[in-house]
Amino acid sequence: MREETLAHQFFDAAIELLCQVRDQEAGHIAEAATLIADTVSGGGKVFASGAGHSALPAQDLVYRAGGLALVNLLAIPGTTGVDVSPATLGSALERVSGLAPATLDNSPAAPGDLLIVISLSGRNTLPIELAQHARESGLRVIGVTSVGYATGTESRHASGTFLKDHCDVVLDSAIPIGDATLTSEGVGAPFAPASTVVTCALLQAVFAEAAGRLAERGVEPPLLRSANVDGGGEWNERVFSEHRDQILWRR
């Protein structure tokens, strides 16, 4: 009989969330995949953005072996990860109004492009204004968030809205409020966050579906191969050459 260690409990919790999201978000995954396929086949650019630890799933999509070559990171200064000092500055900047629209206006994003906004809580000013301004600027928006925060917390934006209210498609990660999945006697706070695992898997599922939709249309999905396999570098150079206007991370 398997010992129920905390490690096993975390794996079980993550697997349960993955299965839940796979089943409940199937329709939204299909919608998001169609938006991506439409953008790619129409010559548009794809951007992904997230702040704090929500930046990790965004970065996981960019310049990734087996991934879509056209995904570009839309980085908002001071918020992409925890590389600023002090790390708490990033959290503070997420609540500053005007930062997201200014970043978008000074980016290569244009009408007809697609923006993926990732925010676990979806309650902070930055992701809300980023999605809102993107749609006003003619971009399509996919939001990746835990919809439960919209009923269990209050918005930090003056409008009282959440990220989910400003998207063409919403992908619900179903992560519990607070992110942590485990509690244990003698441990004072909930622990073992699963948002990165689930959100990365959810987005990779969307892009897998998008690749299939492109192939069905007779469009070769512009995927990257690992540079550590024979011929990978040459393959990637061809993809870059064919999609030079849509790939910005090489510039």
Mean pLDDT reading: 96
* Whole-number total of structural domains: 1
The whole-angstrom Rg is 18 Å
Q: Distance between the terminal alpha carbons, to the nearest Å?
A: 55 Å
Low-confidence stretches: none
Q: Report on the biggest sheet.
A: 5 strands, parallel
Topology-level CATH name: Rossmann fold
Tally of individual helices: 9
CATH architecture: 3-Layer(aba) Sandwich
Shape: globular
| Strand and helix order | HHEHEHHEHEHEEEHH
Number of strands: 7
Helix content: 40-55%
Strand order of the biggest β-sheet: 2-1-3-4-5
Return the CATH class. Answer: Alpha Beta
Q: Briefly note the structural class of the backbone.
A: alpha/beta
> What amount of the residues lies in strands?
5-15%
The CATH superfamily name is: Glucose-6-phosphate isomerase like protein, domain 1
Descriptive notes:
The protein is an alpha/beta fold and 251 residues long. The protein has a single domain, classed as Rossmann fold (3-Layer(aba) Sandwich). 41% of the residues lie in helices and 12% in strands. Helix 1 packs parallel to helix 8, helix 2 packs across helix 8 and helix 5 runs parallel beside helix 6. It is globular, with a radius of gyration of 18 Å. The relative contact order is 0.18. One of its GO terms (molecular function) is carbohydrate derivative binding. Pfam families: SIS_2. One of its GO terms (biological process) is carbohydrate derivative metabolic process.
Considering the chains and any ligands shown, give keywords for the structure.
five-stranded parallel sheet, alpha/beta, 9 helices, Rossmann fold, two-stranded antiparallel ribbon
